[in-house]
UniProtKB/TrEMBL annotation:
<dbReference type="InterPro" id="IPR002104">
    <property type="entry name" value="Integrase_catalytic"/>
</dbReference>
<protein>
    <recommendedName>
        <fullName>Tyr recombinase domain-containing protein</fullName>
    </recommendedName>
</protein>
<keyword id="KW-0233">DNA recombination</keyword>
<dbReference type="GO" id="GO:0003677">
    <property type="term" value="F:DNA binding"/>
</dbReference>
<dbReference type="InterPro" id="IPR050090">
    <property type="entry name" value="Tyrosine_recombinase_XerCD"/>
</dbReference>
<keyword id="KW-0229">DNA integration</keyword>
<dbReference type="InterPro" id="IPR011010">
    <property type="entry name" value="DNA_brk_join_enz"/>
</dbReference>
<dbReference type="GO" id="GO:0015074">
    <property type="term" value="P:DNA integration"/>
</dbReference>
<comment type="similarity">
    <text>Belongs to the 'phage' integrase family.</text>
</comment>
<dbReference type="GO" id="GO:0006310">
    <property type="term" value="P:DNA recombination"/>
</dbReference>
<dbReference type="InterPro" id="IPR013762">
    <property type="entry name" value="Integrase-like_cat_sf"/>
</dbReference>
<feature type="domain" description="Tyr recombinase">
    <location>
        <begin position="158"/>
        <end position="330"/>
    </location>
</feature>
<dbReference type="InterPro" id="IPR010998">
    <property type="entry name" value="Integrase_recombinase_N"/>
</dbReference>
<dbReference type="Pfam" id="PF00589">
    <property type="entry name" value="Phage_integrase"/>
</dbReference>
<keyword id="KW-0238">DNA-binding</keyword>
Length: 335
């Protein structure tokens, strides 16, 4: 939820805050007494930011205000584009299973050059999952009596594609821009998510202790998979070289500015080595596969990746471990 503050206008206190789009909101509190203003402000803010209606669009907007700063709200800007035409004007409690199935059928039929087979079930699962999340939030806050059931496709199994060590070396060498090469080394060595790597600042790189804090301690948003991890020798050399020429507080930079995306440079390097399917997430996935292949425990890998639940790590990566289920198989020897 946006942070409100008390300001003054002609001697009178006002409740003031900034919307996500930068719009400034200011409302008189009807008092010049600071204690009375502080007492009135919270309830007025809650009333002014409360959704005015019970359509999905109203509740969606209310959820974004309440959850401002959390990572999921950024993704929801994209999922809303897919949902708003069908669900936006609907009364939330009127949504039916038939509406969900119609959305699934429509999205699966939407073909394009990038997705010739239609929108994937994984994408649709996320879209309807965000809708369900908003409705449950609305019910919890008493904005609707009950959240309707939301049916969605089964979540696809995680992709198993990963890069071998030799492929990562080739990918690094094929990257033309130095910031892309540094990002590749950083994400492989730390298992960092793309966003965490690109948002990493030098104040969270401890050269003396050889540790990196991927989570920004001043960021109140809930971020997935951001651990504190050691710096290995390969990364140490790359970071030391980058630090010597740094022009910004950001570790990954280009032309004196922070980098928002390395997808284009990474794709170009991937095509050069015969892996056009490469993506930033594949680097994180590859790092985890290597850790599992080297026999490290799922608990340790979960900590390294910043997983909250080791079950997630086990479900995806246990099959790559040479020791997984080995004792059980040995128990079934008959000769």
């Amino acid at each position: 939820m946006p942070d409100w503050r008390l300001t003054r206008l002609r001697g009178e206190f006002c409740l003031t805050w900034d919307e996500r789009d930068g719009t400034r909101r200011r409302y008189r509190l009807g008092t010049a007494d600071p204690q009375e203003a502080a007492r009135r402000a919270p309830s007025l803010f809650a009333e002014l930011t409360r959704p005015k209606g019970t359509t999905v669009a109203d509740l969606w907007a209310g959820y974004l205000v309440d959850m401002e700063g959390r990572a999921v709200t950024g993704t929801m800007a994209h999922t809303w584009k897919a949902l708003k035409d069908r669900f936006g004007a609907m009364e939330a409690e009127a949504i039916s299973i038939a509406d969900c199935r119609a959305h699934v059928a429509e999205r699966r039929a939407q073909v394009s050059k990038r997705q010739p087979e239609g929108i994937s079930d994984g994408t649709i699962h996320t879209e309807l999952g965000h809708l369900r999340m908003v409705l449950l939030w609305a019910a919890k806050h008493g904005l609707i009596a009950k959240a309707p059931a939301i049916e969605r496709p089964a979540k696809p199994e995680p992709k198993s594609d990963f890069l071998t060590r030799s492929e990562v070396v080739a990918l690094r060498d094929a990257a033309k821009a130095p910031h892309v090469r540094l990002a590749i080394i950083l994400m492989i060595a730390t298992g960092a998510r793309n966003e965490a790597a690109l948002q990493l600042t030098w104040d969270r790189v401890d050269f003396d202790r050889r540790m990196i804090m991927l989570r920004n301690p001043f960021d109140r948003g809930r971020r997935k998979g951001r651990a504190t991890v050691p710096i290995n020798d390969t990364l140490m050399a790359a970071l030391s070289e980058a630090k010597a020429g740094a022009l910004t507080p950001f570790v990954v930079e280009w032309a004196g500015k922070p980098v928002k995306s390395i997808k284009r440079g990474l794709k170009a390097a991937g095509k050069a080595i015969g892996r056009p399917d490469v993506s930033p997430h594949m680097l994180r996935h590859s790092a985890a596969v290597w850790l599992a292949e080297d026999g490290h425990s799922m608990d340790e890998i979960a900590q390294y990746l910043g997983h909250d639940d080791v079950k997630t790590t086990t479900r995806i990566y246990a099959r790559f471990s040479p020791t997984h289920l080995r004792k059980l198989a040995d128990s079934l020897n008959v000769i």
